[in-house]
Amino acid sequence: MAIRDVLKMGDPRLLEPARPVEDFASHELTQLIVDMHDTMRALNGAGLAAPQIGVGLQVVIFEVVTNPRYPDAENVPFTVLINPLLTPLSDDLEEGWEGCLSVPGMRGLVPRHASLRYQGFDQTGQPIDRTVSGFHARVVQHEVDHLRGILYPMRIRDLRDFGFTETLFPGQNLQDD
Question: Is this model's pTM higher than 0.90 or not?
């Protein structure tokens, strides 16, 4: 178990597409998931993708339960999602404020699909197939973007909607991302 360093925007490894996981029984995958969980929890993250800690594999985790960084967000169950496939359920997009552990101290208004189906596998290779909407859908899209080498600022439509958290939301005491 270890809290790993999170790569910051500007590190070229964050822009590389991740490789699919092939061996679900490996000790390395088990250790990676434990380290990702410990890191996400220590930093109050809503999710974390393996590339954010320098591992180029298609592994994301996410969970939201009373997160100080997202005080109004609904709960999202802890999920390990490997080799994900996202299918938007409509063309409807919703804009919402996002932060990222790889872009600390900043937030941006990002359009995301309002509802989607996600498929993939858990850490034991068992299939996952869920239909979600709202903040859950936003978190999944944000994390899966990391597997494609996309950081949320790349999706912002108007850079006037991107800035430092304490400037955008004065007095709200949102933690650093």
Answer: yes
Cβ distance 45 to 142 under 8 Å?
no
Sign of the dihedral through C-alpha 134, 138, 144, 145: positive
Sign of torsion over alpha carbons 4, 39, 167, 160: positive
Q: Which domains does the chain have, with CATH numbers?
A: 12-168 (3.90.45.10)
Measure CA 170 to chain center: 25
Considering only CA atoms, which of 163, 157, 89, 80 is closest in space to residue 124? 80
Q: For residue range 8-53, what is the model confidence (pLDDT) as tens digits?
A: 999 999 999 999 999 999 999 999 999 999 999 999 999 999 999 9
Q: How many CB atoms lie within 10 A of CB 46?
A: 25
Q: Which of 22, 94, 95, 143 is catalytic?
A: 143
Is 143 marked active-site? yes
